[in-house]
Amino acid sequence: MKVLHPVGRGRIDEKLATEQVVLELRMASVRVISKLVTGPDGYLDFVASEWGTEDLVVLEDDKVPTAWDLVGLMACTAPWCLFPYKPRGGVENLAEWLENRTFALGLARFSLEAQLAVPTSAWLTHLRHKEPGREGQVMLDRAIEVPMRERVGPAHVHPRFITHNHRV
Ligand SMILES: [Zn+2]
User: Fold this and answer.
1) CATH code reported for the domain at 2-164
2) What is the spatial distance between Cα 9 and Cα 137, in angstroms, rounded to a whole number?
3) From ligand 1's centre to the CA of 26, what distance in Å?
4) Predicted local distance difference test score (pLDDT) of residue 86
5) Is the CB of residue 105 less than 8 Å from the CB of residue 9?
6) How far apart are CA 48 and CA 42, in angstroms?
7) How many Å lie between the centroid of ligand 1 and the Cα of residue 108?
8) How many Å lie between the centroid of ligand 1 and the Cα of residue 156?
9) What is the rounded distance in angstroms from the CA atom of residue 89 to the CA atom of residue 65?
10) Ligand 1 center to residue 78 CA distance, Å?
C-alpha cells in the first residue's frame, strides 16, 4: 500500500496539519509519495501514474485524518472507501452528507482490484472541468466515482468528518 499526497499551490497554513500527518506516516514506515501538482491535469496525471500498481490511499494536502482514521482506512477490506469532509458552504451533519453522497477524493482508499476494474481510460469519459469552458482544474473525483460506482459499487463510507482546512 502506498499513500499519494498531492500538494497544490496555495496557502501553506492550510497544509501544515496535513504535513504533520505525512511525517507521522513516514515515521511509521508507510510509503508516502508527495508531489507538487500544478495545471489543470496535474492531479489527474499524478494519480493516473500510480493507478493499477498496488493498493492506494489518496490524502489531499488540506485534509487532516487522525492516526486512528488512517488505521481504520488501511485495514479496511472494502473494495474502495473514503472519509467524508465538509465541503465549503455545504452540509453540516453526517446524515445530510450521506443522503447527498457528495463524493470527493480527499481521503480515499482504492484496492488494486477496484483500480483494475476501473482503468484510467474509464475516467476520461467522465472528466469535466470545474469551470465549464475554461481551463480550470479537472474534476477528478467525479471522473473516478462514476465508473467506480458502476463497476465496483458504491464506496464504503467511514462515518466521521475529517478536518478540511480549506478556507474561503
Ligand atoms: Zn472502508
Assistant:
1) 3.90.550
2) 12
3) 22
4) 81
5) no
6) 10
7) 9
8) 5
9) 21
10) 5
* Cβ < 5 A residues, ion ligand 1: 76, 78, 81, 156
- 119 grid coordinates: 482503468
Number of helical (H) and strand (E) elements in the chain, helices listed first: 7, 8
Residue in this structure with the C-alpha cell 476494474, named with its chain if needed? 117
- Alpha carbons 62 and 7: distance in angstroms, whole number: 9
User: Residue for cell digits 467524508?
Assistant: 84
Contacts of 43 by beta carbon, 8 Å cutoff, 6+ apart: 6, 8, 37, 137, 138, 140
Residue 27 is predicted with a pLDDT of: 97
Q: How far is the CA of 110 from the centre of ligand 1 (A)?
A: 9
Q: Could you tell me the distance, in angstroms and rounded to a whole number, from the CA of residue 145 to the centre of ligand 1? A: 15
* The three cell numbers locating residue 145: 466515482
Length of the chain: 168
pLDDT tens across the length of the chain (168 residues): 999 999 998 888 899 999 999 999 999 999 999 999 998 889 999 999 999 999 999 999 999 999 999 999 999 999 999 999 887 666 778 888 887 776 778 999 999 999 999 999 999 888 776 655 555 567 888 889 999 999 999 999 999 999 998 765
CA of 149 to the centre of ligand 1 (A): 15
